[in-house]
């Protein structure tokens, strides 16, 4: 899967909203709403091959078998804290999907990832696990999260981000060649502080107004 590991979801609606998110003129309330909306859009691609089960229902005209995503099929994982911005849109669309949280602190000097919180459903092994973090920068947090989830039993994983840097894609591809990355955009590179260029700044700070 090495060559095709990243898929850019090139949809005009996503590009439009990403442009607004990138602008420094976009303030916290709008940033939060837009991130939630792109979470919904990315969820469509993240679940494009979700398992379906026919369930008997009755329309106003006649009985039929209607497709449903089974409640035990998926698990979302938010990498705290910015992951919650995308997650909110995903659970708007799929409110029955359980959510795992991984708190990973990024050291601002070394850019190393350190886990400070982990909680996940017990049956990860049987679910399709969809990990969300808006920014795939160095890839350290993504790789640490994927390592942890695999150690906890996860076998089918997908990583969803809004903006990816080539460095982060390379790190995830090398450590986890089985994990498909779905992104809204692939940006140019990282700066000396491991921020993505042109990027959108610090997603967590902009989401929660802590700049
Ligand atoms: N995390 C962010 O929030 N933004 C970046 O550009 C890189 C990592």
Main structural class:
alpha/beta
* Helicity range: 25-40%
Number of domains: 1
What portion of residues belong to β-strands?
A: 25-35%
How far apart are the termini? 38 Å
Count the helices. How many? 6
CATH architecture: 3-Layer(aba) Sandwich
Number of strands: 12
Element pattern in H and E: EHHEEEHEEEEHEHEEEH
Q: At the third CATH level, what is the topology name?
A: Rossmann fold
Whole-angstrom Rg: 17 Å
Specify the CATH class.
Alpha Beta
Which cofactor or ligand species appear?
uracil
Uncertain residue segments: none
Report mean pLDDT, rounded to a whole number. 95
Overall geometry? globular
Q: Quick one: biggest sheet?
A: 8 strands, mixed
Describe the structure.
The chain has 211 residues and is of the alpha/beta class. The chain has one domain: 3-Layer(aba) Sandwich (Rossmann fold), CATH 3.40.50.2020. The protein has helices at residues 12-22, 28-46, 83-93, 140-151, 166-175, 203-208, and strands at residues 6-8, 53-58, 63-68, 74-80, 99-106, 113-119, 128-132, 135-136, 156-164, 180-186, 189-190, 196-197. Strands 1, 4, 5, 6, 7, 8, 9 and 10 form an eight-stranded mixed β-sheet that branches. Strand 4, helix 3 and strand 5 (99-106) form a beta-alpha-beta unit. Helix 2 (28-46) packs across helix 3 (83-93). The chain is globular and about 60 Å long. It starts with 5 loop residues before the first strand and ends with a helix. Bound molecules: uracil (URA). The site of uracil has 9 residues, from helix 6. Uracil binds at residues 82, 135, 137, 195-196, 199, 202-204.
């Amino acid at each position: 899967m090495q060559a095709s590991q990243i898929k850019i979801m090139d949809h005009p609606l996503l590009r439009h909203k990403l442009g607004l998110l990138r602008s420094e003129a976009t303030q916290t309330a709008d940033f939060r709403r837009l991130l939630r909306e792109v979470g919904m859009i990315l969820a469509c691609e993240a679940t494009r091959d979700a398992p379906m089960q026919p369930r008997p229902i009755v329309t106003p005209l006649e009985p039929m078998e209607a497709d449903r995503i089974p409640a035990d099929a998926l698990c979302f994982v938010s990498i705290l804290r910015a992951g919650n911005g995308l997650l909110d849109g995903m659970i708007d669309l799929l409110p029955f999907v359980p959510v795992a949280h991984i708190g990973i602190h990024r050291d601002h000097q070394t850019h190393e990832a350190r886990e400070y919180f982990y909680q996940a459903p017990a049956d990860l092994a049987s679910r399709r696990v969809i990990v969300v973090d808006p920014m795939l920068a160095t890839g350290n947090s993504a790789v640490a999260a994927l390592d942890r989830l695999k150690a906890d039993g996860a076998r089918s994983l997908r990583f969803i981000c809004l903006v990816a840097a080539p460095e982060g894609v390379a790190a995830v591809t090398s450590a986890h060649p089985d994990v498909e990355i779905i992104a809204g955009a692939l940006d140019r590179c990282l700066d000396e502080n491991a921020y993505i260029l042109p990027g959108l700044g610090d997603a967590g700070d902009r989401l929660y107004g802590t700049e």
